């Protein structure tokens, strides 16, 4: 059992919102890696960052994603920084699961995340941090992406429908 699709991208790209809609289209379950981590640890993501640091959070995240890749068969949305861990990228590539990179311009992401209070890595300076994260993470996302879908000026429903159609086209060619 493996996910039908994994969604990756920067904070604000629409992974969770689109993922929920995509799961409905595909008639499967939806899971967000941050929610899986919170359920597994009994701690919030912000709490883990504050109490244990980013390195410990990434270790937990890598283990959680690896487990989900072998035990979950729906739409899986990863946290924006999940791919900073080589182990997570390796696990995704080895899984053979389609990975969809959802992307949008930094200005759009800034508008979507607002003040960033709920996002530990953005809280101090959302615009500056998002720009830096985009530069750092873009190559990592592209390394594992099977498909790239632009979410700018598109509703989550339209993005989900586009992803579903492209996954169907991909499956038909296989």
Question: How does this structure look, described?
Answer:
The chain is of the alpha/beta class and 174 residues long. The longest helix is centred in the C-terminal third of the chain and has 19 residues, at 126-144. The chain has one domain (5-173): P-loop containing nucleotide triphosphate hydrolases (Rossmann fold). The chain has helices at 15-26, 33-41, 45-52, 54-71, 86-95, 106-113, 126-144, 156-173, and strands at residues 5-8, 30-32, 75-77, 99-103, 147-150. The radius of gyration is 15 Å and the shape is globular. The chain contains 8 helices and 5 strands. A 5-stranded parallel beta sheet has the order 2-3-1-4-5, with helices on both faces. The protein is 59% helix and 11% strand. The two termini are 19 Å apart.
Q: In what range is the share of β-strand residues?
A: 5-15%
Order of helices and strands: EHEHHHEHEHHEH
Q: Care to count the β-strands? A: 5
Computed structural class: alpha/beta
Largest sheet: 5 strands, parallel
Biggest β-sheet: strands ordered side by side in the sheet: 2-3-1-4-5
Integer-rounded radius of gyration: 15 Å
CATH hierarchy class name: Alpha Beta
Total helix count? 8
The helical percent reads 55-70%
């Amino acid at each position: 059992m493996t996910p039908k699709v994994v969604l990756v991208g920067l904070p604000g790209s629409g992974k969770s919102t689109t993922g929920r809609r995509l799961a409905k289209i595909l008639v499967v379950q939806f899971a967000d890696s941050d929610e899986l981590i919170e359920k597994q640890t009994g701690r919030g993501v912000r709490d883990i960052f504050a109490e244990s640091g980013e390195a410990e959070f990434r270790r937990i995240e890598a283990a959680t994603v690896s487990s989900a890749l072998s035990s979950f068969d729906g739409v899986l949305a990863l946290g924006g920084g999940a791919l900073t861990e080589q182990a997570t990228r390796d696990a995704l590539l080895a899984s053979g699961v389609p990975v969809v990179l959802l992307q949008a311009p930094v200005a759009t992401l800034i508008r979507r995340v607002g003040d960033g209070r709920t996002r530990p890595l953005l809280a101090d300076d959302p615009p500056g941090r998002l720009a830096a994260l985009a530069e750092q993470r873009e190559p990592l996302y592209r390394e594992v992406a099977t498909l790239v879908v632009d979410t700018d000026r598109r509703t989550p429903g339209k993005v989900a429908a586009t992803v579903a159609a492209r996954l169907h086209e991909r499956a038909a060619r296989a």
